[in-house]
């Protein structure tokens, strides 16, 4: 199976590098394009066997899967450029990672229903993305293939397109919220006497541990919080003080702002 990634920048490049480490595509079955040679050269230094070219038209020839990863405002132009060179029966799978362009619009531009939207987050760089997959018809068999591909780059969830914006707020914006919690905790750690680099490492591992614990036990956070909050103890005092300052409310309001 061959995949072509049009626009191998931050997101497209991370997908390409991740897939090259996986089992579905050999490195030489991955073709990437960018606008400038400089970005291609960066990819060449890490993945010398990838097919790297600035020529989108040459790149789509013979591909089974074409993944568009240019900025949203360039999508129409790039699709129009390669459209005459796509399989005439549109038997390829067309994936878009562009935020904000609905399936129906992509289907019109590509003139195919084999269109799947995928929204990863930046943890794709280390194979830990929370990736959402959607299409106009969620029963199409191509969804399974795309799910397998993105499972090599982290976790995946198939969602109706109507929920994509909310899911993006939780995972793509949410990664920044989680990092802000880490930053704030580490800052607090310094004030209570831990050196900055240690404080950050402590909080990072604490957050990883908390998430893994909930995932492994399929537990509700309140159940696990209950276990560490001794009556009259320091954890409940700390938690309540955070709530008095509006912690949960601030997180919920921030998320709601993302989908306005
Ligand atoms: N970053 C994220 O967290 C994230 C998450 C989900 C979805 N996305 C989506 O991913 C897409 C790309 O975002 P990004 O952050 O990766 O942007 P980016 O780093 O700027 O990457 C875009 C790439 O497209 C290339 N490009 C521009 N015009 C082109 C053309 N005509 N033909 C071929 N390649 C072309 C650019 O090449 P040069 O490098 O040579 O300029 C660049 O490498 C966007 O649609 C965004 O909505 C991003």
Strand order of the largest sheet: 3-2-1-4-5-6-7-8
Percent strand = 5-15%
> H/E series, N to C?
EHEHEHEHEHEEHEHHHHH
Helix content: 40-55%
Question: What is shown here, in short?
Answer:
The protein is of the alpha/beta class. It contains 11 helices and 8 strands. The chain binds NADP nicotinamide-adenine-dinucleotide phosphate (NAP).
Q: Would you kindly provide a written description of the structure presented here, covering whatever features stand out?
A:
With 260 residues, this protein is of the alpha/beta class. It contains eleven helices and eight strands. The protein has helices at 10-21, 37-46, 56-60, 75-82, 103-110, 142-151, 164-191, 196-217, 221-228, 234-244, 247-258, and strands at residues 3-6, 30-33, 51-52, 65-68, 93-96, 115-119, 129-134, 154-158. Strands 3-2-1-4-5-6-7-8 form an eight-stranded mixed sheet, sandwiched between helices. α7 (164-191) crosses α8 (196-217) and α7 (164-191) runs antiparallel to α11 (247-258). The model has no long low-confidence stretch (mean pLDDT 97). NADP nicotinamide-adenine-dinucleotide phosphate is lined by residues 6-12, 33-36, 39, 56, 69-72, 74, 78, 97-99, 119-122, 172.
């Amino acid at each position: 199976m061959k995949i072509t990634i049009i626009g191998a920048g931050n997101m497209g490049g991370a997908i390409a590098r991740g897939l090259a480490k996986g089992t579905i595509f050999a490195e030489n079955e991955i073709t990437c394009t960018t606008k400038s040679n400089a970005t291609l050269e960066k990819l060449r230094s890490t993945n010398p066997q990838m097919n790297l070219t600035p020529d989108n038209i040459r790149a789509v020839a013979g591909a089974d899967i074409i993944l568009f990863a240019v900025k949203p405002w360039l999508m129409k132009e790039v699709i129009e450029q390669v459209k005459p060179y796509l399989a005439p029966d549109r038997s390829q799978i067309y994936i878009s990672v562009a935020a904000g362009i609905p399936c129906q619009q992509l289907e019109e531009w590509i003139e195919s229903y084999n269109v799947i939207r995928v929204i990863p987050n930046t943890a794709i760089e280390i194979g830990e993305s929370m990736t959402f997959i959607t299409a106009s018809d969620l029963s199409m068999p191509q969804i399974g293939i795309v799910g397998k591909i993105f499972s090599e780059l982290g976790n995946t969830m198939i969602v109706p397109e109507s929920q994509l914006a909310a899911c993006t707020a939780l995972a793509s914006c949410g990664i920044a919220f989680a990092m802000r919690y880490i930053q704030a905790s580490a800052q607090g750690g310094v004030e209570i006497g831990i050196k900055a680099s240690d404080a950050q490492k402590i909080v990072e591992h604490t957050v990883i541990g908390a998430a893994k614990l909930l995932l492994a036990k399929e537990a509700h956070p309140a159940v696990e919080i209950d276990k560490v909050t001794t009556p009259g103890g320091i954890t409940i005092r700390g938690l309540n003080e955070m709530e008095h300052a509006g912690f949960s409310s601030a997180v919920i309001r921030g998320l709601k702002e993302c989908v306005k």
